[in-house]
Write a structure and sequence with these properties.
The chain is an all-beta fold. It is built from no helices and 26 strands. The strands form 3 sheets. Strands 1-4-7-10-13-16-19-22-25 form a 9-stranded parallel β-sheet, with no helix packed on it. It has a 9-stranded parallel β-sheet with strand order 2-5-8-11-14-17-20-23-26, with no helix packed on it. The N and C termini lie far apart (44 Å).
């Protein structure tokens, strides 16, 4: 367990059931990720702040869960969610990404399974990225279970929530999310196979057809 640490660089999790709690991870550009799992690792991240220069993303890999995480002022993606990854009750905001980079706040990688993005506030800011991007080319995806995106407040990007095709996952559930009116193109661009329920703008107005 890492509890109450100030970490410069990054953490590579190569063992199961690791806990990182009440800590701050500051990227200095020497490590691609702030916290990342290997094929053998899993980690629970609680009450942690990640800030600074992470060339890839603040958090990445499979089998991680984050609760009350703040990701801010980062230069790459906010978090990349592989199989069995979860992010809840967290804030991702105020990116320091160069405009040409087009980073996204949360990237669900490949056909990753059993992924949950719930009750977060995610603002990617202006640019070509997305607050939530479903990226079929990220990883192989070996898990079981749906991709669930629910109860979040989402804003920014060209498309605030975007699902790339072809190769889009077949079991995607997007429900109860609230969108700010600041997308450059549209709040949603997703596969027709995705299940959409009770998503709206913050003022309660319905979203345009995607």
């Amino acid at each position: 367990m890492l509890d109450g640490w100030e970490i410069r660089g990054g953490v590579v999790v190569d063992a199961p059931d690791v806990v990182v709690r009440r800590s701050r991870v500051v990227g200095d550009g020497t490590q691609p990720f702030g916290i990342v799992t290997t094929d053998r690792g899993s980690v629970r991240i609680e009450d942690v702040t990640l800030v600074g220069d992470f060339p890839e993303a603040a958090i990445g890999g499979d089998r991680w869960s984050g609760e009350r995480v703040e990701i801010t002022g980062v230069t790459g993606d906010g978090a990349r969610l592989g199989d069995s990854a979860r992010l809840r009750n967290s804030r991702v905001h105020d990116f320091a990404t160069p405009p040409e980079r087009g980073a996204s706040a949360l990237v669900v990688q490949g056909s990753g399974r059993d992924v949950l993005v719930e009750d977060n506030e995610v603002d990617v800011g202006p640019g070509s990225g997305s607050a939530v991007l479903l990226d079929p080319e990220g990883t192989a995806g070996r898990g079981e279970g749906p991709i669930t995106i629910r109860g979040n407040v989402l804003s920014g990007g060209r498309y605030t929530l975007r699902e790339d095709e072809p190769g889009a996952p077949s079991d995607v559930r997007i429900s109860g999310n609230r969108f700010r009116r600041d997308a450059e193109e549209a709040p949603l661009r997703v596969s027709r196979r995705a299940v959409l329920e009770d998503n709206s703008y913050l003022d309660g107005a319905g979203l345009p057809d995607w």
